[in-house]
Amino acid sequence: MTSLNPSQSASGTPTASTALFTDRYELTMLQAALHSGTAFRSSVFEVFARRLPEGRRYGVVGGTGRLLAGLADFRFGDAELGFLAEQQVVNQQTLDFLADFSFTGNIYGYAEGEAYFPNSPILVVEGSFAEACILETYVLSILNHDSAIASAASRMTSAAGDRPCIEMGSRRTHEESAVSAARAAIIAGFASTSNLEAGRRFGVPTVGTAAHSFTLLHDSERAAFQAQIAAQGPGTTLLVDTYDVPAAVQTAVELAGPELGAVRLDSGDLVVQARQVRAQLDALGNLNTRIVVTSDLDEFAIAALAAAPVDAYGVGTSVATGSGAPTAGMVYKLVSRSGDDGEFVSVAKASKNKASVGGRKYALRRRSAAGVAQAEVIGIGHRPEDDGDDRPLMQDFVVDGLLQPGWTGPEAVLRAARRHQESTAELPASWRQLQRGEPVIPTEYEAPKG
Amino acid sequence: MTSLNPSQSASGTPTASTALFTDRYELTMLQAALHSGTAFRSSVFEVFARRLPEGRRYGVVGGTGRLLAGLADFRFGDAELGFLAEQQVVNQQTLDFLADFSFTGNIYGYAEGEAYFPNSPILVVEGSFAEACILETYVLSILNHDSAIASAASRMTSAAGDRPCIEMGSRRTHEESAVSAARAAIIAGFASTSNLEAGRRFGVPTVGTAAHSFTLLHDSERAAFQAQIAAQGPGTTLLVDTYDVPAAVQTAVELAGPELGAVRLDSGDLVVQARQVRAQLDALGNLNTRIVVTSDLDEFAIAALAAAPVDAYGVGTSVATGSGAPTAGMVYKLVSRSGDDGEFVSVAKASKNKASVGGRKYALRRRSAAGVAQAEVIGIGHRPEDDGDDRPLMQDFVVDGLLQPGWTGPEAVLRAARRHQESTAELPASWRQLQRGEPVIPTEYEAPKG
């Protein structure tokens, strides 16, 4: 167990403090609550998504490890306090509270990599209103982004089957999102990423060889291939669509010989071209030279290539932007809090089309005797009963302000990737269907027990 | 002018080095080019978008200021070199080059905030292949993200007319994207943001008062409003849709009196509710109390509220995720490079559906005598002639490795916001149409001059 202390941060991010990744109203609410004497009421906040993106059948939790690591850096130092004072965001009483802030409560929820469904209580944050309220924006930013990527990436690796997917979307998204997107894609089954910072920060495998510009830099495609093979060896991947694909494949095999690692196709009709190139490679004796395709792929394009002789998929824009759903739509809602008497009261807003369900939540995945998931069961105020085949979903991440071991750092990425594999494997077979439909299992509430 | 030297960084970002926000292949290409002796061929790379997002009529350049500031931090220090060596990403010759790297070439292009169109040469990077190649991923990440946000935000402020838009999408996107999104939204005419880090880093105005959780924390809505007014004064904005809107408005006016600043509606049918609340406020004598609406707004919802008595729009998910187009789809292509004889040669790939146009580009906006934009004119290898009414578009950002003044920092945000206003004002009136259509002006090439 690690104290949430910045000197022991395992976030690996270069950010000194994460505390201002926050909406201003979190701090003005804190000030008003300090003023009214309600700031230290015990509170339970819950992160959930009211629905999955249109037609999706499941979601995948991403970002928990980054969030837990970054919490240690959620501290208000001189720079942060100076800004808040200078801009008169909050008063001195509030600044004093923030100067001493560190989270002392509990955080529990779904393990990273776990499948989730509408209203799954993905994360529960318990503490005083003051300490739990101000985490809202930061918690949601990370979970909404990383879960959107993991959820999209999971559909791609599912469609790809045993063929590896390579994440290469960095150039299509914010430079820091790119690093987190690579991490989330790996959790959802991608084999590697092009992003070097992700390799450094999270220990994930990185790959890459050359772009069209490298071919254009040289006086001929032949000269470019020669240069690349000389520098990277014949096992490299040569990009063969700059001018004429069959001519390039011919040149590539002539220069690299039977050890040519792979050729990459980045344009045109990939199904047709992959077949032609496979036939050409085989005719030239390059039976072991692989074919990598990379042109604006998404889960549907990957599925359409299932019968084509393709060995790996490079995915860019689509994975880095969540394949049509760039945010997971999770919210952070107060569901229970104590009153002046110290007793907890369930609370919920009644807003039209945004009503919430009050009460502290627990969840388990109901499974058949054969181990197939049947329902997401959410107990309000109690843990739903496990009939022996079921799987409780709530994990302890932070207990009394102490970060529990195993949830952060590079090893947590590996663990989350295994969790993703196991969690999807137990879903009904329809989880792999890409067409629009309902969630593969229903969400069921168990009312509070007498 | 500022040398691109990290000790003089104006980026304001907490990132020590930006150099690993890079695809691995940029560095393996560099290695192969160093090996083949082509690494120091003079090269011209161009950033452009082949098309605007489906149905959009113009785009808005965002991110240039962040990019130019971050370039100073694009350096390979011991930490970066150690990672590359340990992972055997590149060889010692390449590491030696990277250790000494700083960009010494030229960067010119469209000013931040400028409108752009298909194939507009948004940024041109001139230098050796080595130094220009390795910037690709970083340049595209920033421009693709920030331009996507600025382009979406511009449609929202256009639809909002004189009513202010407030950016509040931080929780729906990556925590660092959120900061950049706030900046891009301000450039495209947003009045303020909820994001505190954006306030600190870029000097943009921040706003915020309270969420539903604040109401739920208290024993009654009345107690919550009392607490908020006591802490923030009667000029605050009270959120009135937690339980029953008319009752909340009644309570709000009772407690805050005629000085009540605003009420916020976050759910339900906003057109109907805004009318009811306006009537109620007026009947209570609160003629100056404003109405802020914030429920999943996008440019279409804002337009639909034009006739409703709304005073400000809070926009979240839609602006932070680019309103259906989360990336601008810009690419970074080698368009010209020198040969062994030192002479420049235009280059372009012939890939199916991804062909590019070779040659160094210059651009101007052709305008009528009345000052209305008529065409985006791109000269290949020469500057198109200005007939007196036209406006040249290429600005010098970096000259011989020296950052030119005025393009970075908080003042650049203000300048870009003014540029956005001026640039859109000269477009044909159809630029404000939200329905799908063609770009409001055509892109025309002028061939190389004999």
UniProtKB/TrEMBL annotation, chains A, B:
Post-translational modification as stated in the protein's UniProt record: Transiently phosphorylated on a His residue during the reaction cycle. Phosphorylation strongly increases the affinity for substrates and increases the rate of nicotinate D-ribonucleotide production. Dephosphorylation regenerates the low-affinity form of the enzyme, leading to product release.
Record-linked SUPFAM superfamilies: Nicotinate/Quinolinate PRTase C-terminal domain-like, Nicotinate/Quinolinate PRTase N-terminal domain-like
Residues covered by the Nicotinate phosphoribosyltransferase N-terminal domain: 20-144
Name under which the protein is recorded: Nicotinate phosphoribosyltransferase
Catalyzed reactions per annotation: 5-phospho-alpha-D-ribose 1-diphosphate + nicotinate + ATP + H2O = nicotinate beta-D-ribonucleotide + ADP + phosphate + diphosphate
Cited function: Catalyzes the first step in the biosynthesis of NAD from nicotinic acid, the ATP-dependent synthesis of beta-nicotinate D-ribonucleotide from nicotinate and 5-phospho-D-ribose 1-phosphate.
EC number: 6.3.4.21
GO molecular function list: glycosyltransferase activity; nicotinate phosphoribosyltransferase activity
Source species of the chain: Arthrobacter russicus
InterPro entries: Aldolase_TIM, NAPRTase_N, Nic_PRibTrfase-Fam, Nic_PRibTrfase_pncB, Nicotinate_pribotase-like_C
Superkingdom to which the source organism belongs: Bacteria
Record's keyword annotation contains Phosphoprotein: yes
